[in-house]
Design brief:
This is HAD family hydrolase. It is built from five helices and five strands. The chain is an alpha/beta fold and about 140 residues long. It has a single domain (about 1-140), classed as Rossmann fold.
Length: about 140
């Protein structure tokens, strides 16, 4: 199972100075799910290399990170960037020979996905909650 992971609005509330304050909830989930691999879909990948991104995460999360989604050039998004994050996720799956893999995304922006059952939406003002982790667990039980 592949988990595409956003940072802002998921691992911490959006626009807050303190970062990764909600990561402990994902840590607990991962401790129970040994078959989950993480691909970073966060916009932070546009600024930081993968090694730096891993260093910002808890050890439990970092050890599961197997890559980051590609960054589409702006011209490729014309005329509209609708569902761009889902397109990036699917491109990563295709490029890495995982087209048929089960996957889900944790994100705070549902408009970045065309297939709503592929994303668990977090409230950007809060980030991950026990309820969003419960939805993630439910998804893994039924996949």
């Amino acid at each position: 199972m592949i988990l595409f992971l956003d940072f802002d609005g998921v691992l911490h509330p959006l626009n807050k100075a303190e970062k990764f304050t909600r990561a402990h909830l994902l840590d607990t989930f991962l401790a129970e799910q040994c078959d989950v691999e993480i691909v970073l879909s966060t916009s932070w990948r546009q600024i930081f290399p993968l090694a730096v991104l891993r260093s910002k995460l808890t050890a439990t999360i970092a050890e599961r990170v197997i890559g980051a989604t590609p960054i589409f050039p702006r011209a490729a998004l014309e005329p509209a960037p609708a569902a761009v994050r889902e397109r990036e996720c699917r491109m990563w799956l295709d490029t890495n020979g995982r087209t048929d893999a089960a996957w889900i995304a944790l994100d705070d922006e549902p408009t970045l996905f065309a297939t709503r059952e592929r994303v668990i939406v977090c409230d950007s003002r809060v980030g991950l909650t026990p309820e969003s982790i419960e939805a993630l667990q439910q998804h893994f039980r039924t996949s």
